[in-house]
User: Which sequence fits this backbone?
């Protein structure tokens, strides 16, 4: 098991956000985490990454209890995140933003990594010397994904990758996410576009008010009556 959350409860101050959630991601698996606003999806990713620490329960990476592991330690274990709203360094160039993704690989030859990212996102090669803050929203999302891939992750965490993008760019983004997954990278993706997420995922979990209320194979969830009514508008 690459990642496991076992009965995890988290708080922001005195406010409970996650209540006893358990989920798993195997090596090479694609898992999506669905739910409405304020359901706890982003907090789950922050808990996996170590930004938020559980009040109870355990986060396990590669069989090791990582409750006390800091963020750099978890990244060194093969985690990387594409955060909500991209969170780029706008006054740095595209290339400099990409280089930051490999900060824990100091001294490594990044030629192959740049080639991989530029193959997935040819536009980034064209824009490599442009300030990231001057890019379009779709281009910034490409930089955020490319930056995460520069760390050579085993598990890619993605927080709302379709947010703020046009339908055409959403389609393009998801094709690339699928390609990255098929290269052997496990994915845990938070996404409100349930139909799109379930169309490429292996399994899914549904969060409501900090608890997992539904889980199963993606194809089964796609046709689940409760999910269709709540999230697919059917």
Assistant:
């Amino acid at each position: 098991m690459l990642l496991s959350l076992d009965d995890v409860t988290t708080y922001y101050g005195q406010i409970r956000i996650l209540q006893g959630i358990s989920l798993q991601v195997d090596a090479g698996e694609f898992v999506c985490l669905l739910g409405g606003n304020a359901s706890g999806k982003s907090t789950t990713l922050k808990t996996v990454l170590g930004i938020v620490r559980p009040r109870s329960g355990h986060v396990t990476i590669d069989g090791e209890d990582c409750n006390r592991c800091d963020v750099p330690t978890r990244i060194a274990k093969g985690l990387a995140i594409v955060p909500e709203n991209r969170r780029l360094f706008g006054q740095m160039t595209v290339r400099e933003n990409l280089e930051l993704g490999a900060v824990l690989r100091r001294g490594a030859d990044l030629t192959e990594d740049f080639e991989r990212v530029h193959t997935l996102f040819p536009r980034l090669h064209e824009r490599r010397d442009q300030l990231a803050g001057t890019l379009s929203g779709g281009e910034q999302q490409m930089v955020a994904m490319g930056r995460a891939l520069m760390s050579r992750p085993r598990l890619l965490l993605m927080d709302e990758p379709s947010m703020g993008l046009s339908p055409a760019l959403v389609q393009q983004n998801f094709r690339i996410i699928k390609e990255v997954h098929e290269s052997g990278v496990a994915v845990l993706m938070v996404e409100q576009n349930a139909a799109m997420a379930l169309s490429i995922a292996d399994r899914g979990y549904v969060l409501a008010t900090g608890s997992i209320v539904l889980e199963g194979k993606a194809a089964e969830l796609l046709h689940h009556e409760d999910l269709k009514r709540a999230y697919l508008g059917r």
